[in-house]
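Fold it.
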Amino acid sequence: MKQSVRRWLGDLLGTPFGVAVLACLVLAGWALWTGGLLDGPAARQVRTSSVYAAPGVDLDQAAAERIIGNRRLVVLLLEPGADLRQGCRRVERAADGNVVLVMSRDADDYDTYGCALLPGRDDENFGRAAVAEMTIGRGIDTFVDRPLEALKVVTINYDLLVKAGTVPDGARTISPSLPRFLLAAAALVAVVAGSTALYVGGRRAGRLADARRRRRDGNADGRSTLSAAAAVLAQQIIDLDQRYAATRRRGRVSGAEKAFGREYQALTSDYVALLDRVAAVDGDDEDAVRGLVDRVDALSRRARAIAGPADADGQQARAIG
């Protein structure tokens, strides 16, 4: 029986049809492996998205994707107590070429683990990758109850890394994997059962992805401007919060410090009231987005005025740096 099977396989592989079938099977295995057949939930998600939230983590996925946009940045929000380093390893192949930040809430702050999956990260770009990993998660603990605001701070850190030349500039491109096309072509040539279904399904997925990308690109400009302005304002409030906390620790404060405290509290109250409006605004409503941008700019000017000339110059230097 075994000899008959081996003889049959030998006869089959000795024909052009058998070679074509074998090549198709090899391509199929390659395509399935590179396409993420063995990936976990996080890796499957970040192949087509910049954000993954573990089950039980409260996050507005669509809003989080709008905040990150097309940056080469991937953020994983895992459940408390999760192994962050293992989370990074699980998406290493799916998020290759991007800066990855893995986060999980730990009481009143975040546990973070950065992994910069940059080209040449183990050779000539080792130092840049290390700097990116240490910088990307700074300043997010202030917004432990507002993960979307924490993501805005992460995008600020990423943009500063790009401006400094630590992370290469450019947009992230998500496209179907090449082996899938090869699999479809080989299946058609070898008349493999189901080739037509695979081809049509791949074309449909491509059209849906392209239509979604066009819609998001059409509405991205206004939201991007608003998100950038809100992120700058968030950083200003973080800087003012450090000064306010230092003032409270001293106990006895001067009249000028009391006035600063009242202005700071009024600013934060207005900022919190604005957050819900920013999160709920429809990206298609250009007038509403423009109005919120003006409102955020006004609060940013108030923050600079509260900080005073010296602090404002320091904040500007940090932003440029």
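Residues 312-321 have pLDDT under 50 and may be disordered.
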